Amino acid sequence: MVLASFASSSDLFSHLWQTVLPDYIANTLILGVSVVCLSLVFGTLSAAFIVHTNVKGKGFLRWLLLLPLAMPAYLVAYLYTDLLDYAGPVQRTLRGWFDWQSPNDYWFFDIRTLPGASLVISLVLFPYVYMLARTAFEQQDQNLLRAGRLLGLSAKQSFFKVALPLARPAIAISASLVLMETLADFATVNYFAVNTLTTAIYDTWLGYGDLATANALASLLMLIILFAVVAEQRARAGQRHQSNRPNQHIEIIKLSFVQQVFISGFCWVLVLVGFLLPFTLLVIMAIEYSDMSQLMKLVEPSKNSIEVSFYAATIATCLALLFGLYRRLSNDKWRMFPLILSGFGYAVPGTVLAMALLATFGPLDHFINDVAVYFQLIEPGLVLSGTIFAIVFAFVVRFAAIANGTISSGIEQIPRSLDFAPASLGVGLGEMLKKVHLPILRPSILVAWLLVFIESMKELPAVLLLRPFNFETLSIQIYQLISDEMLEQGALSAILIVLLGLVPIIWLNRSKEST
Amino acid sequence: MQKIPFIQKKILLIFASLSIISSTLAQASEEVNVYSYRQAFLVEPLFDKFTEETGIKVNVIFAKKGMAERLAREGKHSPADILLTTDISRLIELHDRDLLQTYSSKTLLDAIPSQYRSKDNTWYALTTRVRNIYSAKRLGVINVNYEDLADSKYKGKICTRSGKHAYNIALVASMIATHGKAETLVWLEKFKANLARKPQGSDRGQVQAIHQKLCDISLGNSYYFGKMLADEKQKVWADGVYINFPNQSNRGAHVNISGMAMAKYAPNSESAKILMEFLVSKDAQKLYAETNMEYPVRTDVMPSALVASWGTFKADSLPLETIAKYRKEALKLIDQAKFDL
Amino acid sequence: MVTNELLSIKQLSVTLQKKTILSDINLTLNDGDILGLVGPSGCGKTTLLNTIAGFNTFNTGELKINNRNISRDYSSDDEDILTITPAKNVAPEHRNIGMIFQDYALFPHLSVEKNICFGLDKLTKSEQKSRMTDLLNLLKLTGLEARFPHQLSGGQQQRVAIARALAPQPKLLLLDEPFSNIDARLRNELMLEMRQLLKQLKMSAIFVTHNKDEVFTFADKVAVMHQGSILQVGSPTQVCQTPSSWQVADFLQLGSWIPLQAANGLFQSALGDFPSASQLVSNTRAVTDENNSKTRQLLLKSQAIEYCTGQSEKSNVKVDHIRVTEHGFHYLLSSIEKDSSLFFDQLSFYSEVLLSLGQHIAIKIKPHKYQIFSMPTAT
Lengths: 515, 341, 379
What we know:
The complex is a heterotrimer. Chain A contains 24 helices and no strands. Chain A has helices at residues 2-8, 10-18, 21-52, 58-64, 73-84, 89-98, 114-139, 142-150, 155-166, 168-184, 187-191, 197-207, 211-235, 257-289, 292-297, 299-329, 337-343, 350-374, 388-412, 417-424, 429-458, 461-466, 474-482, 487-514. In chain A, helix 1 runs antiparallel to helix 13, helix 7 packs antiparallel against helix 10 and helix 14 crosses helix 24 (487-514). The longest helix of chain A has 33 residues, at 257-289. By secondary structure, chain B is an alpha/beta fold. Chain B has two domains: 30-128 and 255-308, D-Maltodextrin-Binding Protein, domain 2, CATH 3.40.190; 130-254 and 313-336, D-Maltodextrin-Binding Protein, domain 2 (3-Layer(aba) Sandwich). Chain B is built from 15 helices and ten strands. Chain B has helices at 3-25, 40-54, 67-74, 88-96, 106-111, 166-179, 181-194, 203-211, 222-230, 235-239, 269-279, 282-292, 305-308, 320-325, 327-336, and strands at residues 31-36, 57-62, 82-85, 100-101, 123-136, 158-159, 217-221, 241-244, 255-263, 295-296. In chain B, helix 2 runs antiparallel to helix 12 (282-292), helix 6 (166-179) crosses helix 7 (181-194) and helix 7 packs across helix 15 (327-336). Classes of the chains: A mainly alpha, B alpha/beta, C alpha+beta. Chains in contact: A-B, A-C.
């Protein structure tokens, strides 16, 4: 299929190949690798500090480190490019202090570059790594670390040689989520004036009107991701990692004063830069530019946002459960298939996905209308592609990977024997799932639901293209104002999106604590 | 035996329920649906006035990317009646994909000069906007042409938004029409070499950069100047620049349009016609001109006082269709020059 | 510290999460000895093991480990003896102790080879290789180097865990319920094998178990723990023959309990009376405490029971349960007189005489060194 689309559009493709595509691919790879690396450093280290050291304020930091998740990446990108580029307040103030006149008078790092983009995107995405790594560390069999100690490792070495490798599957899952999110993102990199493969997809499709080449490029993007994921899985083939034994006493490394300063500094900087600073900027904007009348305008979009996100989260979670349990309980050779397949939607840029859905639902809608005419009923119109059905469907496809990841890892933690025990007690499959698996999976189900909900609240491109008339969501409101450089007016919506995203995060954290 | 009637029943049930759903969606005749490439809040005052005058409700969806695609996929069941665009190329694209229907009336034909509407009466311009060159006041009054952007005297002094933005593509297309491909490529490469920074941000952002002395020259649409002057925060930026109408001594400044068209399968074509006529009415054009600082397409409606104060200018007489024709070539040249990289 | 003492624990107490887990623990271990820590679940034996290993800190007391002849990196100036106090901790990795965990704690992401060599990174590659080969041979693991832990049987996993713990040549090996995951049939064999191995390597070891058979098979020295303290330490023979308290005897199931009543210088039991002033009574403290009569019990071993075959004696017990063993029959007897405060319901009696279920018989206690204990009122 990929080859076919390459061949059919070879003209445009060779033009792109000779001009910008190599640069785009290079940028894509560099961006992907650096965002993943930075997120891993931020997420894994902070998780390790929270779980394994007595860092000050750890009770707060535990959940504060999750907060950047509530921030839509495009929003943070906008705020930071605005804050840090030449015309932004930071450089302006510096120029004021030091009486610099032009860019030639001083050096300041350029935020609108590949490193700038990587850094800011990592700051928004690292909580994925943090969350999964933290859970992995907390649930590790502490005897393994103890064994490491008695075999001559210090607590620190023991972490790096035992705990970290053991957490690798969880960290790898989070890294692939980060990778997919990064590569599928268009709006964010756009603010950084960084051109990636996603740029090429948009150009070919919207600029050149060549859907085939756009498809080919999208496939290329997916191949990169697939390659990364498979390579990682290959690298740990044969190893087995599950060895969960929760509720064990975890040894806490006592930090020296200097370590304490650096480590709590590290965690606080992450929280500050990933959440507090951008959020404060929004609040300041809101105070300066907003009034009550704007607040009223938020009611309808909030309701819409919550409504579609609610449906999407519920459906994605149910599907993830279905596919996950199917893989676990079926003997079918292809039992892995639905799960893997449904996970790839995450890597598809929102707009491309929206187009694909229009292409699928459009004809279906036509068919429905034709059938309606045949039965002499009123033509229902575009019931699939023209209603929130399409949006919910898009969200489910796009965020299935998150729900799948969370639920599968939950399922993996259920001992195999529990699949058989109920049958031995004369309990049927349905009853068994209801009485055993679902109650055990409850925390995972909750987490999956919340994560999809948050992501759906933030999602922009798909909803922009698929929404019906008069259907505004918070993200659309923000986007409209951002694209006219008037975020100030949209600060309230932005705050609302963040706050609505915070509720599930805090809830999520509490649910994790109580389990 | 019993299954078949059951399934039939089920199908009927589904359709019945779909019909009920759709009846809530179904367009009452007192409505008109608009797909807009313009942000909703920019056109809302206009629609509010329309509803007030006619009692017809206006539903709007705003989206930039993929709107034409959506319309095409929806086909004959599309709820869209009117399409509003901000760029000639979009109108031509809709036209070429056979997504528009002809509609003409004396009002429309009288109000809109012939170079600002399609020959087959499918689309009509509503406003025109110039691709201006802004220059820092510190340079003094300058006389500048688009060709000068490649002049090495401006090395490191020019800012612009992405080369692939519709407004810039249209400008490049007009350059191709005037100078040919080869020369335009050279121009683009030299232009790129003159840039103070990688293309980024919006047209307003470039004026801000001039204000911050990051560069001296930028490309920007005319109406942004007016809007910045009206904005508390952005006024200082605009105060630091002159708005220049390029190529006044030769072919004239590059002009783009915002336009409207009726969708091929418009379900509310009667309301749609009323809306189209309304949008070219003197009142609407006046409102458009005042709120959006654009040049009304009607010759008998004056631009806003502020816009008028920038003086009259000579517009490039290049047919809009020609600009749209060179669009893809322009995009390829921009890629080739690696303008955005 | 005496020269051949490897480990000495003095007045050690541990409080975790405001709960006292261990109090006033005193223990010494000689070079080459195998100590069995035994006690009911929750008595603190695993905590003691973890404290020795360095996974817990302790609140009071002192822990000394003789660290002589050791080439490992830890150098405490010119001291050979590690002295650990609450104020002066020594990290687990510097204690030169090896440990085998109950679930073996094999690193699931590493092969057998890497698991075994995990603690050897101070050695050169070739030294690692030769030590590993030795261990593989010793533990009959040759050929399994490349396997991952989940590809091994339970017994193989245990042997890898042993190999891994032995590889860095620790002075002291700690074993946490090492045989609990092993098939009962294999267990005895494995215990003997392991004991031989430890003796062959002159390795000292402390192991934790709640199984008395394991202690008596495996240990040179037994420490019985109860509710956070050590009740008795001694050789298996010592502990078996002269338990120091009711709990020790009860936990190790050294005999059956017969209630006693003291009256008029006599001890009365359902099986007859004997003088409380008798020289044969071993535990004088229990005897002198006359007020505590209700909780006083006699530890009665099967060999001290005499079966009266004649008709002269009145039947006093009933046969409740019969188990056939390779040496004859094992009966559980209960006293016939149910209402009496001297009633007992589980008296273990081995005999070669065949009795029938429910049969009433007469038995009596042979005069012997009576072991009398006060049963704790509430446990």
